[in-house]
Write a structure and sequence with these properties.
Blueprint lengths: L11 E2 L5 E3 L8 E6 L5 H8 L10 E3 L5 E3 L5 E3 L17 E6 L13 H18 L6 E3 H4 L13 H6 L24 H13 L11 H14 L10 H12 L7
Length: 254
């Protein structure tokens, strides 16, 4: 492919060869947000367009707000890797991937510039409108690949996106004391926690035992929805925030 017209008005186009047709659908119904985790945006852009990398995303948003499209929205970019959401293990086929330039946790993890976040909001609005997506389908890479990925991380301003109508979000409950579940705990309370996480969409086995997998998924949930403390311990604030998210989705219990 020598080029294409961008799906997002004003986006620059730099074609990545790393894509295939979507499988089982002809249009996406979710957006996955990432950070690049590389020293520079130019380096990340080059890597996503290098056939050797075998990775890509539909879009890259630079620190200054410039948007580059590398894969058409109708095609399947290779951004999510081994992942799942609501039992679907082919997240790439059902999603649009957006890489946000940020060096990430291993390279200092600075705050996301305001102009960059404004560009992400504008881009997401267009994608949501084009494909009729629902708010709860705007997710973090860490949501669909808990433990394996932590991006875009706890500094990503999900609350700002929510105020702009992007994503499913409730104000996180303040961190406080009280009984909490952690590694080694077991019983009905742990089973209920695992069930709520699974209902929301996380890939977790319901065993009634708070094992390493549960700790990883709880940390992923905190990173997105209760970022003040990300420790994998299901304290009362984490559990109450999860309950409030589920209460905002009454159709899940129909």
């Amino acid at each position: 492919m020598s080029g294409f017209l961008p799906d997002h008005p004003g986006a620059d186009v730099r074609v990545s060869p790393n894509f295939t047709p979507r499988r089982g659908t002809d249009r996406p119904d979710m957006v996955i947000l990432h950070y690049t985790g590389m020293p520079t945006g130019d380096g990340a852009e080059a890597w996503l367009c290098d056939p050797v990398s075998e990775v890509s995303s539909h879009y890259l948003v630079h620190e200054d707000g410039r948007i580059v499209q590398m894969v058409r929205e109708r095609d399947r970019a290779w951004h999510a890797g081994r992942s799942s959401w609501q039992g679907n293990t082919d997240v790439n086929s059902w999603s649009v991937g957006i890489e946000i330039v940020n060096p990430g946790h291993e390279l200092g993890y600075p705050a996301f510039p305001k102009c960059q976040i404004a560009a992400v909001i504008e881009l997401c609005r267009g994608i949501i409108e084009r494909h009729g997506m629902t708010p709860e389908r705007i997710l973090a890479h860490s949501d669909v690949a808990p433990g394996r990925k932590v991006d875009p991380g706890e500094k990503f301003p999900w609350a700002i996106l929510a105020r702009a109508g992007i994503g499913h979000f409730v104000p996180p409950v303040n961190v406080r004391g009280g009984a909490a579940f952690g590694r080694g705990d077991a019983g009905a309370g742990v089973e209920e926690l695992q069930s709520m996480l699974a209902i929301y969409g996380y890939g977790i086995e319901i065993t009634g035992s708070f094992d390493a997998e549960t700790e990883v998924v709880v940390a992923a949930f905190q990173r997105h929805f209760r970022p003040r403390r990300v420790d994998g311990i299901a304290d009362p604030a984490t559990i109450e925030t999860l309950r409030r998210l589920l209460w905002a989705l009454p159709e899940r219990f129909a």
